[in-house]
Amino acid sequence: MSTGVKNQLRVCALSVKYNIMREMLNKVTFLTNTCFMMLNNAAFIIQWLILFRLKGDIGGYTMREVMLLWGIACCSFGLSHLLFAGVFSLPELIIGGRLDPFLVQPKSVLLGVMTSSTRISAMGDLAYGVLVMCVFCFSVKRFLLFLLFTVTGAAIITAFALLMGSLCFWFVRGDVFGNYMVNAMVSFFTYPDGIFNGTARFLLYLVIPVGMAVWMPVHVMMEFDAGALFSVVGFAAGLSAVATAAFYRGLRRYASGNLMEARV
Amino acid sequence: MRKYIVIYRSVLMENLQYAASVAMGFVSYFIIIYIFLKLWNSMYAEPGSLIAGYGREQMIWYVMITEMIWFGARSGAVTRQATADIRGGNIAYQMNKPYHYALYILARYTGEWSVRLPMYFVLAVAMGLVMVGPLSGFGPFAALAAVVSILLGITINGVFKLCISLFSFWIEDTNPFQWLYDKLILVIGTIFPLEIFPRAMQPFLKLTPIYTVCYGPAKLTVDFTPEKFLEILGAQLLYLAVGLGAMFLVYGKGVKKLYVNGG
Questions:
Q1: What pLDDT, on a 0 to 100 scale, did the predictor assign at position A62?
Q2: Which of B34, B173, B192 shows the shortest C-beta gap to A50?
Q3: What is the tens place of the pLDDT at every residue in A66-83?
Q4: For an engineered disulfide with A195, which of B21, B38, B76, B163 has Cβ 3.0 to 4.6 Å away?
Q5: Residue ranges per domain, chain A?
Q6: Which residues in B49-78 are b (16+ Cβ under 10 Å) and which e?
Q7: Alpha-carbon gap: A11 to the closest alpha carbon of chain B (Å)
Q8: Where are the domains of chain B?
Q9: Cβ proximity of B106 and B78 under 8 Å
Q10: Does B22 reach chain A within 8 Å, measured CB to CB?
Q11: Inter-chain contact A40–B183, Cβ cutoff 8 Å?
Q12: How high is the ipTM of this complex?
């Protein structure tokens, strides 16, 4: 690995570390945010317990698969928001012309933006995802796959948010459309793919990539399929490359807001 | 009272300017309803089957009404603004004004939902008619009862959310408590009628805000009876009285703790 890449990774790691340390300054707020986010997610167990009491199989999923779905969704969402929360604020930075501080740094602009903030409640999501996985369907092989799919899921969520956020370089109200697309992805995350069919299913696999982020990983974890695994990894890598290219292409159109502000 | 009407009108006029932004939220409503439509369709595999006494159309209309309340009552006044005022010290300026701060926030809240709710109402009715068709047995009395119940439910929701925000006098971040309240309403209240829960749990759930904020208005829309209307109306009035009492109590105790660092 070249020194440049090593330095870049070190800067990113330090940025994330200091973001987390800043958020943890107030211990009570940190703990309540983490614990309540876990409770917040756990509330949905009631919903599924009731639904499965009415019918044992929903869209081809049992309680175990739904919990696995929740595990991957929470961990992917948590990892993405813990490490790269800055990408979700990209539209505001572009519209407000506030990318200047990142442009003058002697490091990657994109990684600088992505690692510029963290959402501390994402710790609760991460912890909840791992807990659910271990309680409902633990096996060593499944856990290793779970870790891999957490990374690919986080990459897909981050890349999709980056792609949608980058629309603001071209469209004035691109932020509204982008936010709805990202929120739509999160809304579909925790429902079985079996209840959707036809065009909706196609759109949810390839346009709003819910299927590749969580549904296909659940299928692979329940019944191993090497082809599907490589499809997920390939899709995550491909989407990340496309989103990165879109960001740098759009960056050429960026206009500074000439805003004078102190970043502490 | 006139001063609160003036506040209400000014917020109403302000929010009317942003009606187009509110309409953009229709996408989220559409997505949620689409998901639940698909979910309940898979639950009602056999045509004509009943779940807890509700047919497929009734169940989907139930979700549409509760989600309409949920989206229509979204407000920055009772959550973000109240919390920011208390945490930032802005309340020190507002408590000296010739109005009660909590009622001022409620007037703003009412101004906000007065724009949002009718818009979501039109969307819910349009989507309901297209996706599931008209609701059988729905008449003018049911409509009147549902409107009264929805307005009371939304007001109760605002009062309770404001009560949670007022805890900012003691704790720095009330967001986690708002999440829990929202989840109680969203996960249990908006999706399932109370009859779906085990019989032993139903009396307990009737004591929670779910009964007055979500279940009551939606139940009266999909399955109206005069007896049920009187029962729900009584519960809502009682809940509103208790909620307002708690709100004044928490505010009264909270302002005594207030200290401002100048600036």
A1: 93
A2: B192
A3: 999 999 999 999 999 999
A4: B38
A5: 17-251
A6: eebeebbbbbbbbbbbbbbbbbbbbbbebb
A7: 31
A8: 2-256
A9: yes
A10: no
A11: yes
A12: 0.84
